[in-house]
Amino acid sequence: MPHIEEAALHAYLDGAAPPADAALLEAHLADCERCRARIEDVREVRERASGLLASLEPGPLHAPAFAELEARASRRSAGAVDGADGRRYESGAGVIASADDRRYESAAVRAGARPDESAAIRAGECPDGSAGAGDHSDHHDEAVGGSAAVVATPWWRRPSLAWAASLTLAFGLGWLLRAELGAPSGLFPGPAASFDRPAATAPDAGAPERDELPGVEQKALAEAPNETGAANEQGSLAAVRADIDAAGRAAEQAAAPESRIAVTGESPLVGVVQPPGAPPTGGAAGEPAAGPPVQRQLQETGQAGVAGGRAADEAVRAAQAAEPPAVAGAALPDAAVAGPPAAAGGPPAATQAAATPQPQGLGARAGEVGAERFELEGAVGAMSFATAGGPGSYLLVSVGDVESWLGAPPRRLPELTLLRAEVGPPPVSLDGPSGSPVVRLVYRSENGQEIILTQQLTVTRPEQPAAAGAERGGAPVDPDARLSAEAARRRAAADREVLLRADMAADDLPATVVEPDGTITYRWRDADGYLLALSGLVDADVLRALAYRVR
Amino acid sequence: VDLSEIYNENYRSLVRFLYRRTGDQALAEDLAQEAFVRAIEHQPAQPRAWLYQVAANLVRDDFRRRAVRRRHLELVGDERGAVPATAAPDIAYQQRETVRRVRAALAELTPTDRDGLLLHEEGLSYEEIAEVLGLSKGSVGTTLSRARARLAATYEKLETTGSQRDAAH
């Protein structure tokens, strides 16, 4: 009688051999000394392997209540219905579905099944059509035309379709972004997209005010950094501020000297400035701008400057080196005329642009975050925002002001001692938009280590209906109104693109990262849209434990 | 199928499986929870095998994504979570070395062998392992036999190399 295969010995020791085989095997073992020795060897290897794996034992677990997971699932399915979260869910399921499809397909091929049989094997996996691993194909169907089609489609067609779709998407997004920025992409690559992002966050009501007296509001905002004292002159926030400053100083000369400004809001940093003469709404985007030509030019300069990040930096340097008004205008000749082509022959560009959402200043934006929901998940999801701006680019603020900067009550670690609060600029990266301000709360742990809780609010902004611009324009048939509607449509398309990127980036969370200096950072996102990071020179487990105590 | 019962009975086991695959406990917990959330959404007929299959796919996707987007971030790959902070220094060192070698030996296995071995350690039957890995039931024994032998042999080799290095120092 031949000796027993080693695999059969393993199966026997694992208790997985069928009873008949086990009986035969035992009978053979009783007679065969060599196989008795072999089974002892197998037993030893088996125990050795188990013993080695036992050394890889996780620490104490955090097990959320099952109801919490159910709530998460229902939140996600609710999000999928209205399309907010659907992409992420479907893409995740798609990945699994494709893996499953391959697996079952290959299993079927191994078993000698025809393609239609392998489809039946998958169908058998989920008899009710909604259970089992195969039910991913429900979502997968849209992309590949049904699970049977996956098998029937020649293998070489699927990758080429995917490539074609990728290329089409890439060109489409590129075109949309180009149209959205309204600036030559060769001059302001990368960061232009980052700096353009706050424009989408500004409330529409701000546009008419700017149309009336663009410079005054900017001037008042430009005073804010002086009041905060240690205003750093590096980083994107400072660049934007300084750009506003340059435009503001120019407007100071151009605007009527008797213009007074009214500052509302508690903190100077979150003041919303309204010129007293400006109507609360209206301001008729269709009308020609009332201000002198210099004002209009400055407004264009300001917009394009904020939209083009590097251009803003150049404007700041130039404006600081020489007389502000002339240079601020001159430093951005391309940006100033970079509006849509129709603006050249039609109404002033400022008038048209005013119908689209405008940046109203960081302070005002932070104050209105609650009402105006917007989505900025991308930038911080993809990057280590705890160190994004460098240590020098955070402003010390009072704890009471943190909420106005964040736009919502900050997350806290109530069990630790709060040392100070800081506000930093939104991180800027080449592959994502800039976010809302980042808030850092610096705590001291029990053993004296600094624990930094970094947070940023990411919320969802409903899309602007294209008709909104037309209504503000007063006359829906007006060419300006049509242009406004077109601008709103382009902006909505760009927003969708940003959401898409945000979904991709968000998949990185949660994550633990080690900074070069040994600081460990644990990043995650909570259910209310906060992106959070805990960092410190402590053990990763300590950070994770603390993360569960963040309220 | 009562998923809450499945959750109570299998959550720790699933986390351990994922932890042994990734070396990162936080990631393991997150992926395990994600797998259960998807199970709630999909209500699979055979939840246990389904969960492990989804979890294994999640790990694969996660590694693929990280490989693309690694940039300057560095995954925490060490075993801080495995060594109690109260262990004496030399014991902690020994444990860390063992853990490091076991992990290195696991990395030497093929993905199928590694997953098969880890799934069996979590108590999955040959049928369930075959389902998760897309193998025939008959080949699971071969897979396990190969994986165990290679794991043990690689570990011995690493241990020998390590002690020779220690002796040289």
Task: Please give the structural blueprint.
The complex is a heterodimer of chains A (551) and B (169).
Chain A: H1 6-13, H2 19-31, H3 33-54, H4 66-82, H5 86-110, H6 115-125, H7 137-144, H8 147-152, H9 157-181, H10 191-201, H11 206-212, H12 214-227, H13 235-254, E1 262-264, E2 272-274, H14 293-307, H15 309-321, H16 324-330, H17 333-336, H18 342-345, H19 349-354, H20 362-368, H21 378-382, E3 395-397, H22 402-406, E4 417-424, E5 438-444, E6 450-457, H23 466-473, H24 479-506, E7 511-514, E8 520-525, E9 530-536, H25 540-547
Antiparallel strand pairs in A: 1-2, 3-4, 4-5, 5-6, 6-9, 7-8, 8-9
Helix pairs in contact in A: 1-3, 2-3, 5-6, 9-24, 12-13, 13-14, 13-15, 13-16, 14-15, 15-16, 23-24
Chain B: H1 3-22, H2 25-42, H3 47-69, H4 89-107, H5 111-121, H6 126-133, H7 137-168
Helix pairs in contact in B: 1-2, 1-3, 2-3, 3-6, 4-7, 5-6, 5-7, 6-7
Provide mean pLDDT of chain A, rounded: 57
State the helix count of chain B: 7
> Residue-averaged pLDDT of chain B, rounded?
85
Oligomer: heterodimer
Radius of gyration of chain B using CA atoms only: 18 Å
The separation of the N and C termini of chain A measures: 70 Å
How many E-type strands of chain B?
0
Query: Could you tell me the number of beta strands of chain A?
Result: 9
Order of helices and strands of chain B: HHHHHHH
Shape of chain B: globular
